[in-house]
């Protein structure tokens, strides 16, 4: 229940439905008890033919004789209407029973009606909160997390909470009230017999509680394993080309089948224990009924202190307790399962986002002077990947970062965009620390083109509009022309309205990269960050993309992380990096004359070409 106290806040916007559900459940519980009490006059009409007719209106004589007053009043009014006609009397009491059962079931429907809005509302808001948190958390959070596990928490775990959320209201409102009203009716009929019954109920409850103690732990195992095999599935779909190319289908199938086998075993254990709850509670309930038949039968036939009609109604009420008792038992198991799911969901919701805007974050909408990086140190884990890095980039100039893989070039891009926070040092835009600028404004000042062209399963137009949601048709076309993408887009079956498939896989690598550039051009930011934007392309595509990049960088401040050095020879400043440190810097011609690391890299690429 601890985790549900935190989940319950998502129900606050739907408290009207919760109140409606509670009121409907109160009436359900009341009519459920009364419907069995109403059987007594019907049984009297059917079987108690020797009873003397009641001619005088009964008088209430206190709580002690309330049962007699109720039965005599019912008999008096039935006789008054029926005029000693047995058929009419029977019709009256049957109509009363039908009305009460009808009201009971209407109340049940209304309770479920209100619960539908409550459950689905909580489900919607919880999923929205999880998705919002997922996209707000920094990239560092996902460096060691499995995507499939996150997907499992947003899908199956939230559904488990939804089902358990219903169980909570069943557990605390509906079934307890049904039991309470039923006990009241049982005590009304026979206090002695009711006390006898409730000697056995705590014993039954204790036995049932023993069954569910390990459900939460077993449920944890099931949900964690589900997250694991969803991760394998997600990785398989993302890397299918490599899996097929290396004939690795059997490797991945074994990983997946091993996981589903564990899931099979965990699920069997969990469900078998859960399935034991209902038959165990029903068997224990019938045992109580059997003992009740023996004891109550003695009170009717031997002691003569209880009417047969009262005893039959009492038996119906006693059996009426079994259904809510089973409901409480099942609900308690669902809550235990849901508690495990709630724990996993809350782990995401309560994860602290270590990259936050300051309370008084500066609103900055333009770039006026320069980008400065001063004495930067950064590490992902133990080893520093950047050490004492400094650079100055005036407005309108191009800064190129070159070096071997792992030298820290892409880390610079991640820090400028504040995907990660700086450990030591400072990055300034117009002499303002980027930590003092709101993240939204900071990223509005920047456009990003990465080595991997990240596109979405949507139309060309919708992919471009991520850069500018209110872009006009003319703006889209101009962006495509700048990016050398207009001609191939117009040749697509539906032009801008063509769906480009999952990750843009209907397009070639060069086409995808040019769409990525067009998206950045459409955004029209003052600072452009190009992270090895041509490294994965063939020579022909590279030429088209490089031309697009040059068009885009005109009169724009650019940070270019370059793999192919031929693309950055005209940069205003080139910084050569090795193991996170600056080893050389200057312009192309200047660096070539130094005969250092830069010249070696250029010569190596010239030789490879």
TrEMBL record:
The protein in question is named: ABC transporter ATP-binding protein
Please report the stretch or stretches of sequence annotated as the ABC transporter domain: 371-604
Its Gene Ontology molecular function terms? ABC-type oligopeptide transporter activity; ATP binding; ATP hydrolysis activity
Tell me which residues make up the ABC transmembrane type-1 domain. 22-337
**GO cellular component labels:** plasma membrane
What are the alphabetically sorted keywords of the record?
A: ATP-binding, Membrane, Nucleotide-binding, Transmembrane, Transmembrane helix
Q: What is the lineage of its organism?
A: Bacteria, Pseudomonadati, Bacteroidota, Flavobacteriia, Flavobacteriales
Q: List the membrane topology term(s).
A: Multi-pass membrane protein
Question: Transmembrane helix: is it a keyword of this entry?
Answer: yes
Residue ranges spanning the membrane: these are 16-40, 86-103, 165-189, 195-212, 276-296
> Where in the cell does this protein reside?
Cell membrane
Per the UniProt record, the source organism is Mesohalobacter halotolerans
Keyword Metal-binding assigned to the entry: answer is no
């Amino acid at each position: 229940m601890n985790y549900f106290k935190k989940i319950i806040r998502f129900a606050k916007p739907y408290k009207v439905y919760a109140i409606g559900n509670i009121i409907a459940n109160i009436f359900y519980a009341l009519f459920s008890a009364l419907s069995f009490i109403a059987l007594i006059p019907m049984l009297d009409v059917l079987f108690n033919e020797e009873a003397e007719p009641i001619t005088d209106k009964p008088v209430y004589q206190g709580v002690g004789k309330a049962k007699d007053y109720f039965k005599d009043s019912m008999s008096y009014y039935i006789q008054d209407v029926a005029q000693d006609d047995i058929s009419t009397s029977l019709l009256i009491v049957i109509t009363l029973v039908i009305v009460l059962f009808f009201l009971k079931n209407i109340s049940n429907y209304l309770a479920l009606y209100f619960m539908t809005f409550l459950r689905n509302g909580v489900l919607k808001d919880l999923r929205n909160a999880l998705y919002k948190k997922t996209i707000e958390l920094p990239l560092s959070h996902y460096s060691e997390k499995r995507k499939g596990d996150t997907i499992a928490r947003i899908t199956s775990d939230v559904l488990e909470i939804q089902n358990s959320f219903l169980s909570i209201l069943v557990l605390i409102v509906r079934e307890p009230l049904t039991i309470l009203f039923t006990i009241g009716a049982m005590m009304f009929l026979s206090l002695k017999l009711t006390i006898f019954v409730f000697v056995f109920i705590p014993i039954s409850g204790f036995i049932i509680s023993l069954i569910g103690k390990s459900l939460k732990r077993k449920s944890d195992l099931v949900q964690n394993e589900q997250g694991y095999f969803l991760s394998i599935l997600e990785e398989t779909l993302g890397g299918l080309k490599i899996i097929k190319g290396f004939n690795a289908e059997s490797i991945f199938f074994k990983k997946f089948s091993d996981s589903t086998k564990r899931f099979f075993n965990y699920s069997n254990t969990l469900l078998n224990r859960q399935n034991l709850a209902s038959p165990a509670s029903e068997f224990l309930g019938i045992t109580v009924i059997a003992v009740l038949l023996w004891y109550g039968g003695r009170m009717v036939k031997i002691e003569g202190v209880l009417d047969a009609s009262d005893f039959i109604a009492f038996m119906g009420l006693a059996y009426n307790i079994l259904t809510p008792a089973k409901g409480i038992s099942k609900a308690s198991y669902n809550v235990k399962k849901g508690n495990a799911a709630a724990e996993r969901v809350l782990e995401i919701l309560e994860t602290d986002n270590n990259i936050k805007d300051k309370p008084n974050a500066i609103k900055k909408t333009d770039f006026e002077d320069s980008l400065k990086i001063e004495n930067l140190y950064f590490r992902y884990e133990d080893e520093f990947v950047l050490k004492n890095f400094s650079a100055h980039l005036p407005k309108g100039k191009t800064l190129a970062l070159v070096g071997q893989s792992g030298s820290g070039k892409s880390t610079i891009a991640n820090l400028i965009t504040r995907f990660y926070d700086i450990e030591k040092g400072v990055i300034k835009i117009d002499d303002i620390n980027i930590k003092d600028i709101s993240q939204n404004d900071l990223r509005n000042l920047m456009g990003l083109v990465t080595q991997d062209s990240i596109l979405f399963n949507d139309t060309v137009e919708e992919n471009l509009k991520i850069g500018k949601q209110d872009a006009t048709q003319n703006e889209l076309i101009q962006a495509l022309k700048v990016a050398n993408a207009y001609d191939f887009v117009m040749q697509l079956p539906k032009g801008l309205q063509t769906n480009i498939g999952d990750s843009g896989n209907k397009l070639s690598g060069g086409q995808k990269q040019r769409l990525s550039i067009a998206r950045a051009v459409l955004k029209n930011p003052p600072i452009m960050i190009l992270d090895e934007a041509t490294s994965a392309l063939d020579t022909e595509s590279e030429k088209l993309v490089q031309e697009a990049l040059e068009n885009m960088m005109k009169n724009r401040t650019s940070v270019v992380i370059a793999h192919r050095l031929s693309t950055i020879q005209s940069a205003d400043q080139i910084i050569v990096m090795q193991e996170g440190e600056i080893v050389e810097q200057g312009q192309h011609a200047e660096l070539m004359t130094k005969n250092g690391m830069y010249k070696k890299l250029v010569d190596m690429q010239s030789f490879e070409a």
